[in-house]
Task: structure prediction
Amino acid sequence: MAGIPQANSTFAATYTAPNPRVRIDLNQGWRFVRADVTGAERPGFDDSGWTPVNTPHTWNAVDGADGGNNYYRGVGWYRRHYTAPSELAGKRLYLQFAGVDQVADVWVNGTYLGQHKGGYSRFRFGVTAVLVPGGDNVIAVRVTNAQDTGIAPVSADYTFEGGIYRNVSLWATDNLHVRLEDYAGPGIYLRQSNVTAASATVTVTTKLWNDSNTTRSVVVRSVIADKSGTIVAEARSTAQTVAAATGAEIRQTVGIDSPHLWNGLADPYLYNASVEIHDVTAGADRITDVVTERLGLRSVAVNPDTGFHLNGSRLGLHGVNLHHERAGKGWALTDPEHIQDYDLIRELGANAVRMAHYQHDQKEYELADERGLIVWAEIPLVNSVTNSTAFTAGTQNQLRELIRQNYNHPSIVFWGIGNEQTDYNGTATNTLLASLAGIVESEDPDRLSTYAVRSEDPDNAQAGLHTQTTGFNKYLGWYYGSKDGELGAWADNLHANSPSRMIGISEYGAGANTTQHALNPPRPTPGGSWHPEEYQSLFHEAAWKQLASRPYIWGTFVWAMFDFASDGRNEGSRPGINDKGLVTRDRQIRKDAFYWYKANWASTPTLHITSRRWTQRTDATTEVKVYSNAGQVTATLNGTSLGTLSSSDHIFRWANVTLRPGQNTVTVTATINGSTYTDSVDWTLG
Result:
């Protein structure tokens, strides 16, 4: 690679990035009122009667999942006093919000900083001129989640929870720094190209800013280090003059020989890429700012016949859809809760996540990077558009925020521009979607654009016109049609008629209440009160068998990983809940269908008796069904052998088993990878 600085054996030094920046969490000590209050932005306002809270916080953690679709959508105020360290004097100061739903107006010491619209992306305000280091400062935030037809989403099948539901922090930098106000992105952007096992090229774009009152001479040094800290590539720019109150954009390209590739679940290897800003004015050399981003080197592609490819090898993507919500917390999740969610996703054996239907917390993208999950990230353009300048501009802005803020995450492969637009033939809808696809192409031509088509729409709706790949939300066997064979037949027909289309399944699923049970039940009424857990299992058994055998389907995403709040629903005897999760909303119960996928997807030993929560029985004749990745499973009932079964499809079924009155114990054993595993359940007849 002529002209590109190469990694070679001369890089023996290890590297530890300097850290001249200061980050301070501001999550403690807020006061909150769920009302619109006149004068609450004033520093001297008396908020002593307000409720003490910490962020992350939402005011809809309870009423957002109680059914009736009458949860509070209105204004809430947050205030806190904060004494900033006096050492921050002379620094550039930024107040950062990781997520506020959905409109935030922010004041510091009575000075209005501005407004952010859109409930899911990070935003920052410069506070250097108004926040006083060493003094008492008052931060006031007016938040509203009231419906606003000028902001996406206008409607969706989930609760729009209001509040400062992600972290708040204060950042301090030198006057000469990497820019923090580029759509609240990291300010450095790592574009990789020509990635193979032999070599890789990385172009580092640094956006810097000079907030001092004099012209500065600046050098940018970019360093890529491996996991041990050994430098594998670096570049140092020539000195560049940057005038006061202006910025510059520096591009540096380096090559890495024999790179250690980021290879999904098998090996999610991450380098660290650091950019140093050097002030070399008047012969000095002072590091004023450093930003470090993780770098995963990989190549991705989708083929209409063979599906998804990672680093040149086919990888069948099988994953889940994920909402950032849970019982008792709503949207106000902490890092340990995000980690628990991703532990469950990894236990399941999924290798992909669709982060529906909006930008998720940075912690989630970091976890996907670390765990080797392929990510579909998307904006909240759900159901419908508003044909207005404000709606168009705001939606385009949300997409730019999504891409800029998450550009460096190797896990992200797909940028989703929308989901299930009901007016799929509408001029306003398709004009907006075309503009969004264009933004993806201009902002990040190396990743793939995608769109999720509504079940009821024609197969050529919207996404076929705009995006490189297509996802289809197909609920055959739940909302309509049969679970047996129709999904595969539909896919084969679409592939035959449109062989160049890149086809994915963005949603498929069925509801399940873990307290409701029936033996081999027929399809329930989706909006009805009866959602037996066993039907969800039958649905997913049938669906996965059809999907797994069709390699041209580039990805499949179960709807959904967890039950979640959707206050407008009232079904499955669980008002306010979408119950299609493989795990309950409180994360306490892995439903039977979870173990079906674990037996198919995970390499860890799986042996699970289904219908285990159906403890009280009225019919003596039943079946024993087991999900396992063993070759053979042996079952006993009350100590008497039911025999040993072999299976090639991970389902072991003993039919027409007769229970005795009173307690019955079913025990199964299997040898997996040389070790013996046992599972047992107790069922009571009568």
About this structure: DSSP finds eight helices and 42 strands in the chain. Helices lie at 335-348, 362-371, 389-406, 427-443, 463-466, 486-497, 533-548, 592-601. The chain has a mean pLDDT of 96. The longest strand covers residues 199-210.
